[in-house]
Fold these 3 entries.
Entry 1:
Amino acid sequence: MLERAMHMRPWDVIVVGGGCTGLATALDASARGYRTLLVERGDFTSGTSSRSTKLIHGGVRYLRSGQVELVYRGLRERHRLRGNAPHLVDSLPLIVPAYRWWERPWYAAGLKLYDALAVGRGLGRSRLLSRRACFNHVSTLQGMGLRGGVLFHDGQFDDARLGWALIRTAANLGCVALNYAEAVELVESRGSVRGVRVRDLVGGAEWVARGAVVVNATGPFADTVLRMDEPRVASAVVLARGAHIVVGRAFLPGHTAVLVPSTDDGRVLFAIPWHGHVLIGTTDVRVSEPSSEPAPSDAELDYLIDHASRYLTRPIARGDILSAWAGLRALAAVGTGQNTAALSRDHSVSVSRRGLVTVTGGKWTTCRKVAQDVVTVAAEVGNLSPAHSITARLRLHGYSTRRHVRYPWKVYGADADPIRAMEAADQRLSALMHPGLPYRLSQAAWAARSEMAVHIEDVLARRTRALFLNAKAASEAAPGVAAVMARELGRGEDWAAEQVDAFRALAKRYLPA
């Protein structure tokens, strides 16, 4: 990839940013036949796009504010994504518990509308549950005052693994994608933005990549790139931090999630089974500056613990948290002084006076449609030959309809077989990374060999989800993973030791004091 990036020229579309929107944009452009380069200064999906609530959903809570069209588009895209990547998107049952007499019929009415909007694309019909039926689905649900509930279905996925599927699919179509490659400067030609100066953050090389159009898809850092073009431009994004905690499965056994539709500050709270653990989130705190490693505050952790403990019989203590992390939502700026929970999750595409295309807003569920809109605008700005988007029915890399495949193999889809073949060739690779994690050393070798993993953080945080599931176990697994990667990448013991030290320092930030 690096060799091609430095010597292929010129490009049709250059995408800056390797989160969900940037990856989907690169895929859409490549699928239309445009010569596409994507550069990401960290690892792919290393920011907000690996820190989501892991749901592919229409946004049922937006019905409360009357955003029916936004919900309809989300449900349509959910259906398309599940069809294009069945190995990565599953149906998840969720219970909305009712503790006041009016809640059960009220929630049922809203979810029937949700069903109606998803007609022909649904994952299962919603239905009323008795008090006893609620306990049959979630045995640890708080029973005091429970009057029953409503069961509905939405989509669940693994965000970082979906990101990798987008990269590989785009690469199969000719896209050149680089992680750890920073766009340090915009390049001008005849008064228009026509490229970027790229710095390889691993090897140190710099070069100019020229193209017909540059797309700014940097999410929380959109303003940084915008101001390379126009230093005094108004902010394009409003930033909100969303925190999550992960606890053991004993707090929510089974396969059904719990949705609390209205917390003290009007947000929705989720408790979700995910990869053998329980994910609880999220918060919504406005922040002023972007960060590549945002951390949840003590107040946010207390908020999540308090609200989850109101609805689950087993109280959560700080010591029960296996991993705590946060991401920054980059919401399209539509005014000032608003509570970020009230801002629309819809997207916006803008073009500067010099032709820089910037996309803000959006989410994983709708990233395909966002990308379609972005590339259509970019093609006009770059005067590219018109071409229709084909991603609505484009199967993603690894596409597999095999059912009952056990985790962690399911998220690899068709790539699971070659990874197992690596284990057959070298029995050492069949060992678990750690007894508290579901991952094998073969996955680390595969990530280094076939998934552009550069650091052990790439393996433990994103190619697998170890850091997000159990930070202490991931830290203890680091030496074994570093040894496997060192063999694959031709690195020495000093490199492995430095990698372990750096990762353990990072992992400490995922464990609350």
Entry 2:
Amino acid sequence: MTPSTEASAALDDIVRVSRALGGDPSFVLHGGGNTSITARGEDVTGEPVDLVLVKGSGWDLATIEPAGFAPLRRDRLERLLRLPHLDDPTMVNELRQASLDASAPTASIEALLHAHLPGRVALHSHSDAIVAVTDRDVPDDEIAAALGPRVAVLPYVMPGFPLARLVADTDLGDADALVLRNHGLFTFGDDPDAVLARHRELVARAVELSGIVAPGRADAEQPDAGEGGIPLRGALTTIAGLRADVARAAGRPMLLRQSRSQRAAAFAARPDLEAATTRGTATPEHVIYTKRHPLVGRDVAAYANAYRAYVERNRQRQDGPVTPLDPAPRVVLDPELGMLTAGDTVRDTGIAADIAEHTIAVIEAADAMGGYRSLDEAQSFDIEYWSLEQAKLAGRRRAPLAGEVAIVTGAASGIGRATAERLLDGAAVVGVDLDPSVPHAFSGDAWRGVVGDVADPAVIERVLDEAVRTYGGVDMLVVAAGIFPPSEAIADIDDATWERALRVNATAPLRLMRSAHPHLALAPRGGRVVLVSTKNVAAPGPGVASYSASKTAAAQLARVAALEWAADGIRVNQVEPDAVFDTAIWTPELLAERAASYGLTVEEYRTRNLLRVEVTSARVAEAVAVFCERLPATTGAHLSVDGGNDRVI
């Protein structure tokens, strides 16, 4: 659709106020809420069309752009609202057909409601304060009176057509705001800024009534305790063991994140925690991300059994067959460990943490006003197993290493960096390097970089602490850090050069492998260690005794580990590259020196293998990924990535 001038101006207005609304996490979290504006447009024939520009499903109000709104024919939506009944698949199909642009996103499930509300603009949020005021056992008119004039209050009904029909059958009178119990707030009118101001006014009134202090976004927490943060408690093996239990219940690897929230830790220490947390979610849609209630304590098996029983009690509520979701908890509240959240991805653990924090705020505020009350079990089940929500989950792609955690040494450059980048396609990665740039080597919450010498036990402790408390455990250990001392004959090697090579290339892998072993043994798919070795183990050259001997020591260490750790389900394999010149080891001077020692030009030296190809860090990283992603029956293997070497073959 090519928007008309009026439609373009309307889009600009709704994008602006939507971002203002969505930018406040006490109003909207992770794609929640929806907005709309009406405008006059034209179809392909030039005929005028009355449109409702409705937020598309999957778009986040905080960052939404004009492309995030679906242009729907308003007259078509109004005719649909006259139907006595419309099932969900048919409604979604009709919304798609009502769109003037086939490439536009699927409109929000509340599109029919937006089309009915009076005024040009409608803004909908799940404000914590509004939810706290309405998640109580009090009459609708008491809530309406407390919020002030021109506010209509309706009981909770399922989103989509049932809610739209309820509103269509309700006389809104002179109302310019609609509060839906256990759900949220709509404000509507002709002026976008006035509608936004009215929304903020009512939320401010609800804040006064409830005294709620809403948290920010939990995914903005820093890895170190800062303002509002707390030092984390609990042994690393306790957290890794809990994560293993969660993964076992889920039937797949899961990440587990320990929160530094002071509020969550205090809530988890409440003596009445079980009673306080089993009353349901703050808003119905949260059940998709957190389940109806958290696990209190650490008995994952008991929680899973209770969840299966919950499904059995309610499965008859669905018209068709019910495929149970995994029974693993998404939020864990434990007096010692505080709050932990589980998910397939780092984003999922962040969403669960955000929602849990905001739910705690709502529960505390509602209890202070007389008692928190959410939807009952049956209503929660209807949302959790709602066909439209199930369709969203079914459409999600799961990466091969989703839910898993890797530690990569030497991660700031060369093979280590390339390996970290490759594993980040699904896994969470903690990289360690002496280079101070390693924390910023990659962006995103799935990456943590630790600066330090991996031969230092204190650095190893920091790396493991980051991996376990931020992501839940260690599934993969890739040892890529190494040094290549200057070329010299054995007769000229001094003790310091020799000992440094052994420390970095052999002792550091030993210390890291030894420390990581208990965590690798708990890995849901079995632990994996990949040593980035070298062709020099099988075919050393003159002048590189320190390098070849130290790397051979590490190779022998890996072979013995393969023998000893197989009983723990840990696979230990080696990748043996040669002539990888895009690494920090190979300076231009060293490259020229080694080429001259073979009587070759630099270019000839780069491709001095049987296949005459250049071996890059990315190609080595792909070989590492093969051992991490696949080959579950392989350990003690050696994979050459060298273009073919006649001395090795």
Entry 3:
Amino acid sequence: MTTSPSVDGTAEHSQHSAPVQLSNRGLRPNEVVAIARHDAPLTLAVDALTALEASAAIIDRILDGGESVYGVTTGFGALADTPIPPERSAELQIALVRSHAAGMGPLVEREVVRATMALRARSLARGYSGVRPIVVETMLAVLNAGITPAVHEHGSLGASGDLAPLAHCALCIIGEGEVLDAGGRTRPAAEALDAAKIKPIRLRAKEGLALINGTDGMLGMLVLALADLDHLLKVADVAAALTIEGLLGTDRVFAADLQALRPQLGQAASAANLCALLADSAIVASHKFGDSRVHDAYSLRCTPAVHGAARDTIAHATSVSNRELASAIDNPMILPDGRVESCGNFHGAPIAQVADFLAISIADLGALAERRTDRLLDVGRSQGLAPFLAADAGVDSGLMIAHYTQASMVAVNRRLAVPASVDTIPTSAMQEDHVSMGWGACRKLRQAVQNLGQILAVEITAGARAVEARSPHQPAPATAIALAQIRQRVPGIGSDRWLAPELAAIHDLIVQASFLSKIEAGSVQLQ
């Protein structure tokens, strides 16, 4: 993973990431993450500049010729049949941005807004939207200055794109509305732009519509979630490995020849990780002979099936995301041959549906982690561990309530797994009679990802205690590295103490790239 998850938007922002060049090919996932989370500066490539100039010239010809073109010389949405004189086209675009900046609720996270703006600039730079280079250049200047438009939680239905969120971003570059400056202070946009020596632009025909007619908010959230999940799926395998050792489970069920009988790619990867993580475990070897158990419970034995299914879901979502990153999203589209054609590419269904699919997989991953945790804490099923992994059960409650906290987040993630993409609401006088709800699908996906990291933190806390309880038998070299990192943050079994800070510390540890890189430095390559 190239960055650490920060779905709560509180991560520190670095000014030292390598510059990202915005060309007319689009952006790569790691570039989106670098811009959103690490303030990577953006520059505009020559090919994008050329494409922008050619597309803008087509709008000039339309205005000169007096053609009737949606969004250029007509109104919008249900007002598409209302003609607009060319001399009022600029007024039309400004009015559009102002009226559509109608979001409500709390502000969304800084990283989401930065991803949204960068992705909108990416789409415009493809040269199919008819905007002048100055529009994209101003967007990049705002991002490079660390200025973040104030974008609200509610306002996008995910068809005609993320209208309200993008309108709040567009409002900033015309010098209106509110922003958060580089120091996180709320300021009028005009004041922040002036301080950064950025001149607000005056929109002309098509530009207001082009600025708001995209799926960039939901795509940005999907890209960030996928970056986090790529990391957390490996963490989930580490958590399972600790639990398997702690419960005196076996690694024989993860053998490659057994897994090959069911050739699911994600399952094979997870099983290979578990084999690598448990290799040379003295704890596993300690009960290889003389153990009366025939096999482990499903929550251990079937881990690769569940973790693997999530991996396959992520692979599918990544393929959709990558195609979106290479897309030009707008309406109407300005084609190189001079045609201006309406389309439905702004509909968020592809993103909405994979976001919902990911939420389902996350809910199942969390449920499995909770079942493994419960088994660690139940004296009747934990193979001799102390009740709730307490130092003095009865006086001490150990991790009893940590499990409650974990279970509550599992329950929340189950609710978040209810699809948003099936919940269309017709709007705009029935012109927009089917919407994707992609923004909502991606908002709840972010919360589910955050919860999953915390659910895994509870399992890892319990698994670490259980592994230590198996002393003098030693864990595998890989899980020993994980355990050493955990103990650098929090102590092991002892009298009851304030647990909340410890759980937070473990969560902070496991979402960092260094947690896995240190394990892999011990010659374990996780897939």
